[in-house]
Structure formats: structure tokens, C-alpha cells
Design a protein that fits this description.
Blueprint lengths: L47 H7 L2 E8 L3 E9 L3 E10 L4 E10 L4 E2 L10 E2 L4
Antiparallel strand pairs: 1-2, 2-3, 3-4, 5-6
Length: 125
């Protein structure tokens, strides 16, 4: 498939509030979770409060080299933010890691997509 034939996907949610399914030919510009229609396991539409608190977001970046594996992640589970970074030294078989918790959305910022801004941690006060 030629790059010129790939159509940019605008969102993962269609006009009826359902997620698109199938093979993605590009990275979506946005998730559009605001338009997503959230249902219970019994197929009953859930409230906007339930939708807000049940939504989880995770952004992860990793780098692999012949000597090291490096990873960094920020996870937003609404009532607490969790982030971690690690460095694994392959030759020494050593793992260095650090993690942080930020309650109630304080001290971190997430973006809807890595292509739309930069997630970050801020100093805890």
C-alpha cells in the first residue's frame, strides 16, 4: 500500500457514537471519547458520570537498544494518576525504576492523543 493512498482517520468514533472496527490504516487524529456512547453489560446506556470515571487513559513510550530497555508511562484512572519510568541494563541484568502517584488529577496533564500536545508531570505540592 502506498502512503499516498492512506486516508487519515479523523476519529475512532462514528456518527452514532460507536467505535470503528477493523484494520486501521493510519493513526487517528483524535479518539473523540466525548461522542462515545457508553453502555453497561446489560446494554443500558450509562450516565455521563459513570462514563467519566470508567474512562482510563494510558500513554507509554519505550526505547530498545542493544544495551538498555527504557520505558516511561503516564496512566490516568480518573481518581489517581500513576506514572513510572524504568531503565533495564541488559548486560548487568539490573532494573532501575521510579514511580509516582498523583491523586485526583493533581500534578499531571494528559492529552487526548500523543499527536495533540504533550502529557506531563508537574511538581507535587
Amino acid at each position: 500500500m502506498e502512503l499516498s493512498s492512506i486516508q487519515q482517520i479523523k476519529t475512532l468514533i462514528d456518527e452514532t457514537g460507536r467505535p470503528l472496527q477493523g484494520y486501521l490504516t493510519s493513526i487517528p487524529e483524535q479518539l473523540d471519547v466525548e461522542s462515545f456512547r457508553y453502555f453497561s453489560t446489560m446494554d443500558k446506556q450509562r450516565s455521563s458520570v459513570a462514563k467519566y470515571f470508567h474512562y482510563k487513559q494510558f500513554q507509554f513510550i519505550s526505547v530498545f537498544t542493544p544495551d538498555y530497555v527504557i520505558g516511561f508511562a503516564i496512566a490516568d484512572i480518573r481518581y489517581v494518576g500513576n506514572s513510572f519510568c524504568y531503565l533495564y541494563d541488559i548486560k548487568r541484568n539490573e532494573l532501575l525504576e521510579q514511580s509516582w502517584l498523583r491523586p485526583l488529577g493533581l500534578g499531571y496533564f494528559m492529552t487526548p492523543s500523543l499527536g495533540k500536545g504533550k502529557p506531563c508531570l508537574t511538581e507535587a505540592h
